[in-house]
Amino acid sequence: MISTDGVLITLALIILIGYVGDYLFRLTRVPEAVILMLIGVLLVPIGHVIPVKYVTLLRDLAPLFGDIALVMIMFDGGRRISFRTPISSSGLGLALATLDVAIPSVLLAVVMYSFFNWPLVYGAILGAILGETTTTVIVPLATRLVINDETYNTIVIEATFNSVVSILFFYLLTILLTGHFSILSYTRYVISYFSIAVFLGLIAGMLWLLALNWIRSTKAYVVTIGIAFLLYGIVDLLGGAAVVAVLIFAVIIGNHEVISEYMGLRLNISEERLNIVESELEFLVRTFFYVLIGMISIISLYYALLALVVTGVLLAIRYIEIFSVVRDSKASNLLFALAPRGLTAAVLASIFLNMNYQPYSSYIFLVTFMVIIFTNIVSSGLLSIMVKASVKSEEQKVE
Question: The pTM is what?
């Protein structure tokens, strides 16, 4: 029997671990994802501190937390799409975000098929999962860097939207696993899948703006996130792309000032309060996933070596992609270093694990766990080297 007290204690422990991880990140500059996953490893695979029955329950709850995380990621990403962002920086950021996912999907499909005998679709899914670069590390870092506005916008847009593109690619590829594939049926399904989402996302966004103009509640920021969850559930029940519906809804909410000016509305949306609610929810979900992945992972030399190969491929792709697209050497060096994988990869790997396409669901999950650790370590090392070089350069100028 699983006791309620045991579940509550386990959940409380995970939340406390999240705060410890955040503190250690600020103290040591070791990425939070690495700290939390290693704590999860110490708690279960190595230390066996938490009973297996509670870990199994948490794993069963992963799909629910996965849906919550997807809504938060798409809602945050959509709100950052500003109609007022300069085309030059937004265009480059969106181009990089698409390449971040598309190129790994293609190359990892080929690499995993050629060297490890994986079916092409599973290698492509692994590439889609690992295509994002985590905003939880990159965006806070970008705000502290002394860089021009265009580079900053490019960094933030890329880090935000490759998560969005990663999620979309992931779901498009998983459709291929249904076993009823033909080009015509696939095209029809994709059109239907997205048209429902786009239509309902637009309708929900515009109707909610009109409702806010009428209600003008001081609690609109909480209800707005609630509407995003409601929209996700309805579109998912109708068989549409729920994440796309939330994205469209979020774009409309994120540009409420522009739309209000055009339509003559008077809205009361507190961006600061919306950010607070969103960041707290994101903290809980992020902590849950990182610790859970550590808890249910298998410590294996084989998967570590496989993850090293995948990490090497990802870094090679990143190098070629950045230095062929970005001409500014300082900006290109910085963008290359900003390549840690994080929450989106953890969520999608967990979702795919629960889809139970064995043995590849487990392979992809375990490889993703190690790649998140490796890419965060490499990125931290590169950024430390760049910071030291920058400080040394400034000291030489003073002399």
Answer: 0.86
